[in-house]
């Protein structure tokens, strides 16, 4: 028999370790890596794989669904993150939420070299990312819980866990605060033995954006042993609100003959979604102008500010030559920074061309014959 070399023994040992790790280690539901790093390229290319995420619910990943915090990306069913279009900047952080009927989890994708852009979820997760896992005066350890709004059945579903490594035998966890024993009561609960925190119903960020809960341990009689320790629940925004114009009617006036670029009025819409995300990042455009003469594009709207300005020469803003000195514009506001996936809202802006004293009086005839009328006999 040929003696085994050290290399052969290493291979066999590796195989044994692999079998042991697969068979003996307990499966932990969720992402295998919670934080991943992406180096900001010159450009993210449409449909080109960026990285692979590994999620396991320990029950086969049936009906696995991914959600990405940026509308510029998606995660395929195999866990591959790809861009939906060519894009050069996406911010410093992306968040990917994965769920199945049995488990859900959140992964953070850090863009190394990325620049801050409006619409990222950086502000939402600032506390969760920058604050270390707080360790209280004794042994209760908690970290912020992040829950997307508008989750569907089934409920209850586990959303986090409290750890107490020094908890006395027979002691129990107790959860209190708004959403537990205060209105809206029963929204959250904790497994008194394991410390698992679960949500029992759909959350609405526009109603309540954060919940401040408290965790403590008690003895068999209900006496507090440790705590209470604060536990923050942050509701992640989804794009579930359309932009609305709340300040109408919108009527603007501009003097005839005004210079090109004259500001007429400002149109601003409101979006109830989180203003720190693209869900409430609005872009404006003019959908229709009536009448469409003497030019179909008499006005322009700043896509970010909503300012309506004149874009034609002063000569075309002549009230005396216009068929109708009043224009109606259909203004559209679209969230998601104007992407096709964004929700829209519309309003009508009425613009009146005001008259100015720009015409001198004129006689209709060049010559006038005097007419003498005698009222009686001359004396």
From TrEMBL:
Annotated keywords: Calcium, Cell adhesion, Cell membrane, Cleavage on pair of basic residues, Cytoplasm, Glycoprotein, GPI-anchor, Lipoprotein, Membrane, Metal-binding, Repeat, Signal
A single Gene Ontology CC term: side of membrane
BP terms from Gene Ontology: homophilic cell adhesion via plasma membrane adhesion molecules
Organism for this UniProt entry: Mus musculus
Subcellular location: Cell membrane; Cytoplasm
Protein name, per record: Cadherin-13
Pfam families: Cadherin (PF00028), Cadherin_pro (PF08758)
CDD domains from the UniProt entry: Cadherin_repeat
Signal peptide (residue range): 1-21
Role noted for this protein: Cadherins are calcium-dependent cell adhesion proteins. They preferentially interact with themselves in a homophilic manner in connecting cells; cadherins may thus contribute to the sorting of heterogeneous cell types. May act as a negative regulator of neural cell growth.
Domain Cadherin, chain residue ranges per copy: 147-245, 246-363
Mode of membrane association: Lipid-anchor; GPI-anchor
GO molecular function terms attached to this record: calcium ion binding
Organism domain of life: Eukaryota
Subunit structure: By contrast to classical cadherins, homodimerization in trans is not mediated by cadherin EC1 domain strand-swapping, but instead through a homophilic adhesive interface which joins two elongated EC1-EC2 domains through a region near their Ca2+-binding sites to form a tetrahedral, X-like shape.
PROSITE patterns: CADHERIN_1, CADHERIN_2
């Amino acid at each position: 028999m040929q003696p085994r070399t050290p290399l052969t023994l290493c291979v066999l040992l590796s195989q044994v370790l692999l079998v042991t790790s697969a068979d003996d280690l307990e499966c932990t539901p969720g992402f295998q890596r919670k934080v991943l790093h992406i180096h900001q390229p010159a450009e993210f290319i449409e449909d080109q794989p960026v990285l692979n995420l590994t999620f396991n619910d320990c029950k086969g990943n049936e009906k696995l669904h991914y959600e990405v915090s940026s509308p510029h990306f998606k995660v395929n069913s195999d866990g591959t993150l790809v861009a939906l279009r060519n894009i050069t900047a996406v911010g410093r952080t992306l968040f990917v939420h994965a769920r199945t009927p049995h488990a859900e989890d959140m992964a953070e994708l850090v863009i190394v070299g990325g620049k801050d852009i409006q619409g990222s979820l950086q502000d939402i997760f600032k506390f969760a990312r920058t604050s270390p896992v707080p360790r209280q005066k004794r042994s209760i350890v908690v970290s912020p819980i992040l829950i997307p709004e508008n989750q569907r059945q089934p409920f209850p579903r586990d959303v986090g866990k409290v750890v107490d490594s020094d908890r006395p035998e027979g002691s129990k966890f107790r959860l209190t605060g708004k959403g537990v024993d205060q209105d809206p009561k029963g929204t959250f609960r904790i497994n008194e033995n394991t410390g698992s925190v679960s949500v029992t119903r759909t959350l609405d960020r526009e109603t309540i954006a954060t919940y401040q809960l408290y965790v403590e341990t008690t003895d068999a009689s209900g006496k507090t042993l440790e705590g209470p320790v604060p536990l923050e629940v942050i509701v992640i925004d989804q794009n579930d609100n359309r932009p609305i114009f709340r300040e109408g009617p919108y009527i603007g006036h501009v003097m005839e003959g005004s210079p090109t670029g004259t500001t007429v009025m400002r149109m601003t819409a409101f979006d109830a979604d989180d203003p720190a995300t693209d869900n409430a990042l609005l872009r404006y455009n003019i959908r229709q102008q009536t009448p469409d003469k003497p030019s179909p594009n008499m006005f322009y709207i700043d896509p970010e500010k909503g300012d309506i300005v004149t874009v034609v020469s002063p000569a075309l803003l002549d009230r005396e030559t216009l068929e109708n000195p009043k224009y109606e514009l259909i203004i559209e506001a679209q969230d998601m920074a104007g992407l096709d996936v964004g929700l829209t809202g519309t309003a009508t802006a009425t613009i009146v061309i005001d008259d100015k004293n720009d015409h001198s009086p004129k006689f209709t005839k060049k010559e006038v014959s005097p007419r003498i009328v005698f009222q009686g006999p001359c004396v």
